[in-house]
Structure formats: structure tokens, C-alpha cells
Write a structure and sequence with these properties.
The complex is a heterodimer. Helices cover 41% and strands 7% of the residues of chain A. The longest helix of chain A has 26 residues. Chain A has a single domain, classed as SGNH hydrolase (Rossmann fold, 3-Layer(aba) Sandwich). Chain B has three domains: 252 residues, no CATH class; 82 residues; 139 residues, no CATH class. The chains are: A alpha/beta, B mainly alpha. At the A-B interface, helix 1 and helix 10 of A face helix 12, helix 13 and helix 14 of B.
């Protein structure tokens, strides 16, 4: 064998060994959370006003990823700020996140604007409807020292059967199992949807997609900083369905029975426990009230009347029993102020809800 | 080219480089298969099968036109008008391999598998046989008539006409509508994207070069197998470089240099190309100037950042592909020509165009700029030299612009560079008097070179504004924002 060939062979062998060692170490020491915390946001780039979520990254300048540390590190709440106004954390679903709304029109931004600096509201809403996902977000949000937590919920987020039906939960199986164990939640920790990554999946190669997402999140930060865009909003979209099926079913349940066990009140109770001494408000978020076909049977695409009415009563009773502050804004917003679904609001609809919440927050602030 | 494409091509090239006995046939077969494999799926039914077939058909046709009138010695030895070459045994085998390969690809339609060598399921076998029969008839006719004068020129015009159709959106759309009608699809859904012909631009440049060199008697003799491999050589079919027949065939015949001489340099080149393309270019693509960014960004500093991102993205993307092609070629024993040489570090625009897409610039210099300026100089009325240079530079660069697409923006981009080259030429003439004095002051010379490099880069980067955006309006708006003239 010539010297050159020997040299090539040695280089290849050493490269393969190094590659195997680096992958092995990466798999053994879970570096993804630490890498997620390394962020250009809040230093070189302004923090995002809501958590990263994007269905079309190239148009949204935003993307959906599953690294919670990276998601929260990119949020404006992660910026070190001196103690100041009342810090309010909003958690909830896509309506709280502000689907089809520009960042300056979301509920959090509206309340911030209305309060003229008296309160600082942070948007920790995140699309997909399950309160277990909200609890996971809350478990990270509490580190930013809230003075008040407002949890916007709706019936569709509460069925026990769909608590784990969110990709962000399924890709954070370890954290979800920890929540289930710590707060004795009813969800099954062995649910097959909570798949733990294999050894190969934890290597550098296995995590290549997640690593690329971390880099892309930083890259999109430049576009976010330059444009203030974090969601491409189409000029036109279909309004919520107003003519409804004559269907009284709700997630396999039929009238007249909706039991407390069918709904994830255990998760709401866990949220209260997690909040500790920080006040937690539960807000039943506004829904679209159809006036079309079969609106006597259903309020909207999501809810048959019987189930929703039972849920409202049950939530009010539960809040009373738990001595929790709860607000029911179910019919606060006129039907024409919903954008593309029974929960997504228009800027005007958002303003109505923001005014109501801002008034309540002001009372809370004055009461301190 | 995707990453799996590159891995497969690497294996083929290493095999070709390692086993000299099968190298020429392996490269030929791989090139034929690759045009089918790399062709993207198209909405017009089966067009993603017919277009690669057409690429092979065009290359064969040009070989026939050029093969029948070859070396002057062969021409002199044969009776007038009968041409100078007969089909050799190797040519017949190559033709048979082409037919059998295409037939075998068509037969994969009947395998109970997802298409793996074609973008979609191939057409009915009988249709492919009919297509092959028509192709053979046409090529046979061409063989009979090929010694006729003017056929090479007609071939050039035919390829140019195809170019114009494929590069002009309204014409491409009309052609797509016609094809949709032929396949019984809705013609009103036709779009220019219906006809994305893999590598046509590069294949056509190689074929025009062969036809033109045949007309001037400079084309070397080569077999069908060699010519097809040259025309659609798989590492270079998607993004160049545009090699010359004589150089390519010389390498093909020389045989591989062996693993020890090519493995490391070839691998190094492929690795550099992969990093440039898949890490740097694809990363920068997020930030590169585009129509959406142009409409959303208002602050000049951000606009400059996104323009720089575009400038580096296009460089890393294009030169990355070239590096991969050169590395793969090297493994296979083919030393493809360099296409980039630090273009953004050149101190003037002329040197930039000598180091950016070098083979395209050389092609245009050989087949357009030089003949044009010669014609202008030897015209009945002597034109001033400055005017000849202006006309030559403007016409050449405009044509290069239009090669990317027949749009106002590409036209302006071509004019931008044409004017830039002309101005640099005049500056060179003007500065000739005092430039030697600068040479004697090294520090000043360094500062001058640095400033001119920076100026050249920014001239090129600003030119990308026309290139990157679809309309004159959006490009003008970006120019205004870059200089803080409008918010």
C-alpha cells in the first residue's frame, strides 16, 4: 500500500471513529435543551411576542418545533427585565396565540396597549386544543415570575380522550410523563403516542432535523426582526361554519350525560397547584354562536348545545368548589367577529375581549 | 441534485474510476438513466418521461449531424456529399443500449413498485415503443440527409427556438396548453411550470457548441457513446459546467487516473460542494432577498443584509453544485472545467465575469461576442472602437440575461452588466496613463485594489436586485429602500 493510500485509509478510519464517538456522547448526554437555550433572541434579535409556530415557515418567518427550551428562549419573556409593572401570563390555545392575527392585534398586545404600561402581558398561548399542552407551557412560563396567570379554556380543550393529541406533547414525552406523575393526572403515561426516542434517535444524526430547526429558528429571527411578521395572514379565508349538521354528539358522548370525569379538570387543578401562590384565573373563552341551519341543536361546529351548556355549569361549580377565580365570556363576542373558526377572533373581536380582561386586570392591580 | 442523488452518483463515479474496463459504458448508461432520474415530476401526463427521451434524442440527432461530416481528411477521402463516417459496431451497440434502456425504464411501469427511476409512472409500453420507432425514423432520415449543407445551422436555430419557447413564460404556457390538449388534460390549467425540462439549457449549449464547431471544422471525431455521455454527463447535467467536446472526449479516452490520485482531491471537492450547497446556500436561502421580503422590509440596513444573503446564497448554491460535479467527475476520471474562481474577490467587473460561471461566459465569448465584434470591425463603415465594445458587451450580456428567462428584469440585469463591463473597459483605457505610477506605491495599490474589489462586489450585488425579483416595480422599490430614499 502506498503512503498516500495509507494516509487516506487512516483519515477515513479516524473520521469514522470520531463520528461514532461524537454521536455516542451526544446520545448519552442530552444536549438538546442546552442547545435550545442558546439563542440570538433577546440579545442580537428582539424576542418574539408569542411562541414559535408556523405552518408555512418561508411565508410565516416562523416555524413549529418541539424544543421547549428553544421556544421559550425566543420569547420576549426570556429577556431579563427589571421589576416593573404587573406581569401577566396568558396561556391557552390558538385563539390566545392569535391565529390569523398580526402580533400587534393579539389579546396580549391589545391589553398591553390598553394598559399603557401599567401591566406587562406575555402571550404563552399555543395552537392545538388540549389543556395538558397548556399545562406543559405553564410549567415553563412560571419561571418568568408571573404576578397573575390567566388560562383561557374552552370545552374542546378538555375531553380526557384528546389530552395527549398534540404533537408538542408527543415530542416531549418525558416532560409530559413527569407532569402526569407529579400532578397525578388521569392521562396514561404509557400512552403509545408518547413515544420515547430510541438511542439512534438521540444521536447527532437522529436529531439532525431538530438541530436544523434550532438554526432555522434563529435565521427566521432576522426576518421577524426586520418585518415584525410571524405569521402570513391570507387576504381571504372561509368564515366559521354557520349551517351545521343535526348532530348532538360530542367526542363520542351523547346527551344528556356529560360527567366531570369526561373532562380534564384534573389538569386545571394541576395548573392551580403549579401556580403556587400566584393568582390563577380560568377564563371560558368566547365562542362563535351560529344562527344558521340546526343552530338550535349546536352552537357551532365544535359544540352541541347540551354538552356546552353542561360544561359551563360544571366549570362554574368546579371553580366555586376550588375557590378559583373564573370568568365566563362564552357569548361576549358577536358572531361576525370570528375569523375562520368557532374560537378564532377578528381584531375587533380581540379588542372586545381585551377590554373586558383589561378592566378585570386593572381591578386586580388596584386591589394589591 | 438531492443528497441521495449525490450518494448514488458518487458510487457510480467511484466504480467507473476503479474499473477502467467498464468505465466508458458505465458513464454512458448512468448518464442516460440520470436524465430520467433527475427529471422532476410534471403535471402534464408522462411529460417527465418524454422530456428526458427528447434530451437523448436531441443529443443523438446532433451527433448524427456532426458525425457525418467530420475531420477534413475523412471528408476529402469520401465522395462528395456522402459524408465521412459510417456507423461503427460501437455506435450500433450504443444505439441498442439507448433503446433497451429506455424500453426497460418504460417496463418499470408494470412493476408493483413506486416509480424509482422516473419521476412518475412511465407511459404505456406501446406508446414508448411508438416513440422510439418515430425517433429511429427521424434519426434515420437525418442520417440520410445529414451531409447536406445548412443542416447544422438549422439545428442551431431549432435549439435556439426551443430555448426561446422554454424561457418565455407566455410561449411556455402556450406550449403547455398544447401538450395538455394532446394528453386530454384541461388546457386552461396550463402553466409555464408544466414544462421544466431538466438541464435543457446546459444540454443545448453543449449541442450548439458541437454544431457550430462542426460548421467551422473544429469538432473532433467521436463515437455516439462518447457524444451522448458528453451531452448529458450526469454530474454536470443539472448545473454545468459547459465542457467542450474535444476536452471531454480526451479525458474519456485517457482512462481514469486511479483511486490514489483522485480519491482525496475528488472527495475534498464533493465535500466542499455539499457544505456550500446544503449548509451555506440552503441556510442563507431563508434570508435571501425575494419578492415577499422586498414587499415587507422597509429599513435600509435590513434590506442590505438580505441582499448580501442573496448574493452569497446564489454563489454558494451554484458553485456548490459545480464543486460536486467537479469532484464526481474527478472520481470518474473526467476533469470538468472550473466554473468559479473567487468571483466576489475580483477587483473589477471584467475579472468577475472571468471567474463567475466561467464556462458560460467563455461560451458566449466564443460563439457570440467574438464573431459579433469581428463582424462590426470588418463592416463597410468602420465604427469607433468604443461603440463596438459597447454594442458587443451590451448584446452579449443582454443575451446572457435573457438566457435565464425572457423577462424585463433579466433584460435589465443583462444591460446592467453590459454597461458595467463597457464602463470598466473605458475606465481601463482612461486609467492606463496613471496606473503604472500606482504600481510603484504598494500601500496605495493595496488600498485601490481593496476599494475596487468592494465596489465590484457591490455592483454585482446590486445587480442581483434585478435578478432576484420578478418585476421592475419591486426591484426599483428595493433600490430606493436600499438607499433610504423611500420607506
Amino acid at each position: 500500500m502506498s503512503d498516500r493510500n495509507r494516509f487516506v485509509r487512516n483519515v477515513v478510519i479516524k473520521a469514522l471513529i470520531l463520528f461514532a464517538v461524537v454521536n455516542g456522547v451526544f446520545a448519552a448526554v442530552n444536549l438538546m435543551p442546552a442547545l435550545g437555550r442558546m439563542s440570538l433572541y433577546n440579545t442580537l434579535l428582539p424576542g418574539r411576542t408569542r411562541l414559535p409556530y408556523g405552518e408555512d415557515p418561508q411565508a410565516d418567518y416562523n416555524l413549529s418545533l418541539f424544543n421547549l427550551e428553544a421556544m421559550f428562549a425566543s420569547h420576549e419573556a426570556a429577556a431579563r427585565t427589571s421589576p416593573g409593572p404587573l406581569r401577566v401570563m396568558l396561556i391557552g390555545d390558538s385563539a390566545t396565540w392569535g391565529f390569523l392575527l398580526p402580533p400587534e392585534e393579539t389579546l396580549a398586545s391589545r391589553i398591553n396597549r390598553n394598559s399603557q404600561g401599567a401591566v406587562r402581558v406575555y402571550n404563552f398561548g399555543y395552537p392545538t386544543m388540549t389543556v395538558t399542552k397548556d399545562l406543559l407551557m405553564l410549567s415553563h412560563a412560571v419561571r418568568y415570575e408571573p404576578d397573575l396567570i390567566i388560562w383561557l379554556v374552552t370545552l374542546e380543550s378538555l375531553p380526557q380522550s384528546k389530552q395527549l393529541a398534540s404533537p408538542i406533547l408527543q415530542h416531549n414525552a418525558g416532560a409530559v410523563r413527569a407532569l402526569i406523575a407529579q400532578y397525578r393526572l388521569h392521562s396514561d403515561p404509557q400512552d403509545p403516542r408518547l413515544a420515547s426516542p430510541t438511542l439512534w434517535g438521540r444521536t447527532l444524526v437522529g436529531e439532525r432535523r431538530a438541530l436544523a430547526d434550532l438554526i432555522r429558528l434563529q435565521m427566521y429571527g432576522f426576518l421577524w426582526a426586520a418585518t415584525g411578521v410571524d405569521q402570513a395572514i391570507p387576504a381571504q379565508f372561509d368564515p366559521p361554519q354557520s349551517d351545521l349538521e343535526a348532530d348532538e354528539g360530542f367526542h363520542g358522548l351523547l346527551p344528556p350525560v356529560l360527567k366531570e370525569d369526561d373532562l380534564a379538570f384534573d389538569v386545571l387543578a394541576a395548573g392551580r397547584e403549579m401556580a403556587g401562590g400566584v393568582p390563577l384565573w380560568i377564563v371560558n373563552e368566547p365562542i362563535y354562536l351560529s344562527r344558521g341551519a340546526n343552530s338550535g341543536i349546536r352552537y357551532n361546529f365544535f359544540y352541541p348545545r347540551w354538552a356546552y351548556d353542561a360544561y359551563r355549569l360544571m366549570l362554574a361549580d368546579w371553580c366555586r368548589a376550588q375557590a378559583l377565580t373564573c370568568y365566563d365570556f362564552w357569548d361576549l363576542i358577536p358572531a361576525e367577529e370570528f375569523s375562520n373558526s368557532a374560537i378564532h377572533r377578528t381584531p375587533r373581536g380581540e379588542a372586545i375581549l381585551a377590554d373586558s380582561l383589561e378592566a378585570l386586570i386593572a381591578e386586580e392591580r388596584n386591589g394589591r | 441534485m438531492t443528497f441521495p442523488n449525490i450518494l448514488v452518483f458518487a458510487a457510480v463515479c467511484l466504480a467507473a474510476g476503479g474499473v477502467p474496463r467498464i468505465r466508458a459504458w458505465l458513464l454512458f448508461l448512468a448518464s442516460v438513466l440520470a436524465v430520467f432520474w433527475l427529471q422532476p415530476a410534471l403535471p402534464v401526463r408522462n411529460l417527465d418521461f418524454w422530456l428526458p427521451m427528447a434530451s437523448i434524442g436531441l443529443a443523438t440527432a446532433v451527433w448524427i449531424v456532426t458525425a457525418r461530416k467530420r475531420a477534413p481528411a475523412a471528408e476529402a477521402a469520401s465522395p462528395a456529399g456522402s459524408g465521412g463516417r459510417r456507423m461503427t459496431r460501437e455506435d450500433w451497440i450504443a444505439l441498442s443500449v439507448l433503446g433497451l434502456t429506455i424500453s426497460a425504464l418504460a417496463l418499470t411501469r408494470y412493476l408493483d413498485l413506486n416509480p424509482f427511476l422516473t419521476a412518475t409512472r412511465p407511459p404505456e409500453f406501446l406508446w414508448v415503443l411508438a416513440g422510439l420507432a418515430i425517433g429511429i425514423l427521424l434519426l434515420g432520415g437525418l442520417w440520410i440527409f445529414s451531409p447536406r449543407r445548412g443542416l447544422a445551422l438549422a439545428g442551431i436555430f431549432f435549439l435556439l427556438a426551443l430555448f426561446v419557447i422554454l424561457k418565455s413564460n407566455p410561449l411556455t404556457q402556450a406550449a403547455a396548453a398544447l401538450l395538455r390538449r394532446l394528453t386530454g388534460q384541461a388546457a386552461d390549467l396550463a402553466s409555464p411550470l408544466d414544462i421544466r425540462w431538466l438541464g435543457f439549457s446546459y444540454i443545448a449549449f453543449r449541442l450548439i457548441h458541437a454544431l457550430r464547431d462542426r460548421m467551422t471544422g473544429r469538432l473532433p471525431d467521436c463515437s455516439l457513446r462518447e457524444f451522448i455521455t458528453y451531452g448529458i454527463f450526469f454530474p454536470a447535467v443539472t448545473a454545468g459546467p459547459i465542457d467542450r467536446v474535444e476536452r471531454f472526449v480526451k479525458d474519456l479516452r485517457a482512462g481514469p487516473a486511479g483511486f490514489s490520485g483522485t480519491f482525496v482531491p475528488g472527495g475534498e471537492r464533493v465535500l466542499i460542494g455539499v457544505v456550500k450547497k446544503f449548509v451555506l446556500a440552503d441556510g442563507l436561502a431563508i434570508l435571501a432577498l425575494n419578492a415577499a421580503i422586498a414587499s415587507r422590509v422597509t429599513a435600509p440596513y435590513w434590506m442590505w443584509l438580505f441582499l448580501y444573503a442573496y448574493a452569497f446564497r446564489i454563489y454558494f448554491d451554484f458553485s456548490g453544485y459545480t464543486d460536486i460535479a467537479l469532484g464526481l467527475g474527478r472520481w470518474a476520471g473526467i476533469a470538468l472545467p472550473e466554473n468559479f474562481h473567487r468571483p466576489y474577490l475580483q477587483p473589477n467587473l471584467t475579472l468577475f465575469w472571468n471567474s463567475w460561471h466561467i464556462t458560460l461566459a467563455q461560451w458566449f465569448r466564443s460563439y457570440f461576442f467574438n464573431p459579433l465584434t469581428r463582424a462590426l470591425r470588418s463592416g463597410r463603415r468602420a465604427l469607433p472602437i468604443g461603440l463596438i465594445i459597447l454594442l458587443g458587451q451590451l448584446a452579449t450580456m443582454t443575451l446572457i440575461g435573457l438566457w435565464h428567462g425572457v423577462t424585463w428584469n433579466f433584460l435589465i440585469w443583462g444591460c446592467w452588466h453590459g454597461m458595467g463591463l463597457f464602463l470598466h473597459n473605458r475606465w481601463g483605457e482612461w486609467s492606463r496613463g496613471w496606473m503604472p505610477r500606482l504600481e510603484k506605491k504598494p500601500l496605495l495599490k493595496k488600498a485601490y485594489t481593496a476599494a475596487s474589489t468592494l465596489a465590484t462586489f457591490h455592483f454585482v450585488a446590486l445587480g442581483w436586485v434585478w435578478f432576484a425579483l420578478p418585476t421592475v416595480g419591486s426591484s426599483t422599490a428595493v433600490f430606493l429602500r436600499l438607499f433610504g430614499i423611500s420607506g
